[in-house]
Amino acid sequence: MANKIIEINFDTGWDLAPAPESTSHIQLKEQYELFIGGKWIKPESGKYFDTINPATEEKIAKVAEGNEKDVDKAVKAARKAYNEVWSKMPANERGKYIYRIARLMQEKARELAVIESIDGGKPIRESRDVDIPLAAAHFFYYAGWADKLDYAFPNRKPQSLGVAGQITPWNFPLLMAAWKIAPALATGNTVVLKPAETTPLTALKLAEIIQESGLPDGVVNIVTGAGATGAAVVNHKDVDKIAFTGSTGVGKIIQNAVVGTNKKTTLELGGKAANIIFEDAALDQAVEGIINGIYFNQGHVCCAGSRLFVQESVYDIVLRKLKDRMESLIVGNPLDKNTDIGAINSKEQLTTINNYLKIGKQEGADMYQSNCNVPKKGFWCKPTLFTNVSQSNKIVQEEIFGPVLAVQTFRTVSEVIEKANNTPYGLSAGVWTDKGSKLFNMTSQMRAGIIWGNTYNKFDPTSPFGGYKESGFGREGGLHGLKAYLKFD
Ligand code: NAD
After folding, report:
1. What average pLDDT score do residues 190-195 get?
2. In whole angstroms, what separates CA 400 from the centre of its chain?
3. pLDDT tens for residues 289-318?
């Protein structure tokens, strides 16, 4: 008799009993205001936008749309807090607040994880095991540095910049906010954060945590809205630093906007990472790394391993193993703990991905999609791979930001280095080989800010993260992440 719980059905993948995470413990308001000067303030425009659940297309909450006047209020609040409180506070006291925020995030981790999944569409396993613990870890890590800046940069007299304007994307909403807020606070700066319009809720929950932590009013301000709100932050005259994570297109607009100003800037932009499998690699582990690299978070990952290079001698076996593994991936309810691939973040993003699938076919590539079922409502994309592609294809050159892999082969080390570097981006890469020397040879010749060896998508607050070329400049994380918020004599 078939086992009801673990029944393998090779047509549709693993057929597991549903294991949904409860939503009864989460507390969300119907309407969110702007968080300015430690208070919830109505937007000047009186306008609100809906944030929806991409897995159900249902509205979750109404969120205030901040305009230039609201951004100005937030910058003034941040400046006042900087001048009167935060820059004068002993560094070890600042550290205590940052620790407190980290502890509160841990206490509310389950609630934050569920909200991240319903607002953004990512599987609960990922928001629970990756996004939220890592976000808290960034606050812990930078809290530790707050009173040790003179040791981090000996004889250099590190000084804070002032008010930091920070703009984040929708793929790791709370984690990106943590990457930016934690080092800014540890270095004595105050903050105006503009979260992405499709995923504002965990940043607003963070505002509640910040209130609960007793952080002085105005040290962190959160102004929700879309591109125009972000532009108002970038263009505000009294902002000393811009930290942006998002698309290369918007990154270029921001870079133009800050030219001729004194604003220190970091841009974390798009990517088109090469994941390279040599014939001497542990192939089963490598296949897991490929899956993790591109299908993790629906491919909504700037460092996604979206270009796979397989050494010709193992191409057939890797492709077979990869397709078998793709068949076992479960696409569906982000709140189900069995789910591997959740919902695409928005209708617009799904349209972008579907356009690339069309382009890939028009370019003559062969498309393969897993045989899984997807829910009728919501935004979904089956795990997809393209073979028979060439270097010049759009699906090989452009960032798709979805669960779509382009597979190519190579024979020699020099060939794969040239192919891997043949992209406008330079954010990340993966190399799978049994030989340490080969790995180090590759890492020294590849133009990518982060290169994983025999693993993929591993993050840690102590490691700097950032790109080359059109993937941006500046680093976040680790000591480098502190430097981006400091000036030196
Ligand atoms: P996006 O550039 O469309 O938006 C990012 C943020 O910028 C949002 O908050 C948006 O409202 C705001 N924005 C839009 N127009 C603006 C303007 N003119 N001025 C100021 N702010 C503006 O990007 P997205 O679609 O939200 O995110 C996906 C992109 O982010 C991908 O390209 C991905 O690779 C990149 N990303 C990079 C990293 C990294 O660390 N390098 C990390 C995550 C995501």
Report:
1. 98
2. 15
3. 999 999 999 999 999 999 999 999 999 999
Could you identify the atom of ligand 1 that is nearest to the CA of residue 194?
Answer: 9
Tell the burial category of 30 from Cβ atoms under 10 Å away from its Cβ (0-12, 13-18, 19+): exposed
Output the CA torsion sign for 228, 233, 234, 236: positive
The residue type of 353 is I
Nearest alpha-carbon partner for 23 in 135, 120, 116:
116
Q: Do residues 307 and 396 touch, judged by C-beta distance below 8 A? A: yes
Read off the pLDDT of residues 321-333 as tens digits, 9 standing for 90 and up. Answer: 999 999 999 999 9
Cα(40)–Cα(38) distance, integer angstroms = 7
pLDDT tens by residue, 43-85: 999 999 999 999 999 999 999 999 999 999 999 999 999 999 9
**What pLDDT, on the 0 to 100 scale, is given for residue 261?**
97
**Residue range 31-269+471-488 in CATH 3.40.605.10:** yes
Give the binding-site residues of ligand 1, using a 6 Å CB cut-off.
167-171, 194, 196-197, 226-227, 230-231, 234, 245-247, 250, 253-254, 268-271, 302, 399, 401, 427, 467, 471-472
Annotated active-site residue 302? The verdict is yes
Q: How many CB atoms lie within 10 A of CB 57?
A: 12
The single residue of 33, 126, 302, 381 carrying the catalytic annotation is 302
pLDDT at 245 over 90: yes
Closest C-alpha to 330, from 288, 301, 372, 298? 372
| CATH 3.40.309.10 in the chain, residue ranges | 274-460
Which regions of the chain carry the CATH code 3.40.605.10?
Answer: 31-269+471-488
Place of tokens 């809205």: 225
Nearest Cα residue to atom 40 of ligand 1: 268
Report the percent of the chain where pLDDT is more than 90: 96
Cα end-to-end span (Å), the chain: 75
- Residue at token pair 């719980």: 5
Model pLDDT, residue 489: 84
Say which CATH topology domain 274-460 has.
Aldehyde Dehydrogenase; Chain A, domain 2 (3.40.309)
Cβ contacts of residue 368 below 8 Å, gap of 6+?
323, 326, 384, 385, 386, 387
